[in-house]
Specification:
alpha/beta, TIM Barrel, 8-stranded parallel β-sheet, binds NADP nicotinamide-adenine-dinucleotide phosphate
């Protein structure tokens, strides 16, 4: 598995498994376990997905079957909007690690910026306290745009290591991507497959023919070529295997450019400037 390196020296696998909209039952447990047994080392969880318990069991069973240790994995979870505010962060964090059955997270994210800047800043100060106390390995944000990141920069002291945002060939976030590159904050893509919608795109399928891979593998590889961390979700065993099988080929600059040109600034999720839970 290919890793990216944060400005603080820590690393993160460039590909992981997403678990949004997965039932808190054997579906979650089996998907996570299957992923770990098949080489995934990163899982993207969140309190609000309501499935941390079964994701946690999948982690335990996956580690046992793959013969690996906790430190071989990179586990992310996210603080939901109803627990914002400096003093609430530790409670949100504790709930997630208890749900997951873990002692620590590798990455804890503020799930959305929210619409109250003062509250967002106060919440980030809680994230900083968690990090400074050594309870979490890395802290980051999700769904932050440039203005949100500038507000953090101007009013807080620890820079996020990563920003997890909507990113797929119809929503390529070029200005945010450039901003993150210049500030040494990594970008992570959610809904990289546009919730499967992108898989019928003609250009993607033409490139898939050219390289002898599936449409999903082409889109995931396009993330890798851009240096973006990605977390495609699947609960289907053969797709979980397919989605990690992207490190034995590459796309040419021309193929990357053809995919970049598909951009329509088309979101499938909420606009972070308006979303408050
Ligand atoms: N921070 C945030 O606000 C935020 C928001 C949204 C998502 N996320 C994270 O990002 C992860 C990924 O996003 P997402 O779940 O919205 O969507 P996604 O990964 O873009 O797409 C998932 C969909 O694609 C299907 N799929 C997966 N691999 C496939 C393949 N190889 N061939 C055909 N279909 C395939 C899945 O079906 P099956 O499962 O049925 O196989 C599922 O329906 C989430 O799970 C979550 O961890 C974060």
């Amino acid at each position: 598995m290919q890793n990216i390196k944060f400005y603080n020296g820590n690393t993160m696998p460039q590909l992981g498994l997403g678990v949004f909209r997965v039932e808190n039952d054997d579906t979650a447990k089996d998907a996570v376990k299957h992923a770990i047994v098949n080489g995934y080392r990163s899982i993207d969880a969140a309190l609000v997905y309501g499935n941390e318990e079964m994701v946690g069991l999948g982690i335990q069973e996956g580690m046992a079957e793959a013969g690996i240790q906790r430190e071989d994995l990179f586990i992310t979870s996210k603080l939901w909007l109803d627990q914002y505010g400096k003093d609430n962060v530790i409670k949100g964090y504790q709930t997630s690690i208890d749900n997951l059955g873990l002692d620590y997270l590798d990455l804890y994210l503020i799930h959305w910026p929210g619409t109250d800047e003062a509250l967002t800043i106060d919440t980030w100060k809680g994230m900083e306290a968690l990090y400074e106390a050594g309870k979490v390995k890395n802290i980051g944000v999700s769904n932050f745009n440039i203005e949100h990141l500038e507000a953090l920069k101007n009013q807080t002291s620890i820079k996020p290591v990563i920003n997890q945002v909507e990113f797929h060939p119809y929503f390529t976030q070029e200005s945010l991507r450039n901003y993150l590159a210049t500030t040494d904050i990594h970008m992570e893509s959610w809904s990289p497959l546009m919730n499967a919608e992108i898989l019928t795109d003609e250009t993607i399928n033409a490139i898939a023919e050219e390289v002898g891979k599936s449409a999903a593998q082409v889109v995931i590889r396009w993330n890798i070529e851009h240096g973006v961390v990605t977390i495609p979700k699947s609960v289907t065993p053969h797709r979980i295997e397919e989605n990690i099988n992207v490190f034995d080929f590459s796309l040419t600059e021309e193929q990357v450019a053809r995919i970049d040109a598909l951009n329509q600034n088309k979101r499938i999720g909420p606009n972070p400037l308006e979303f408050n839970g």
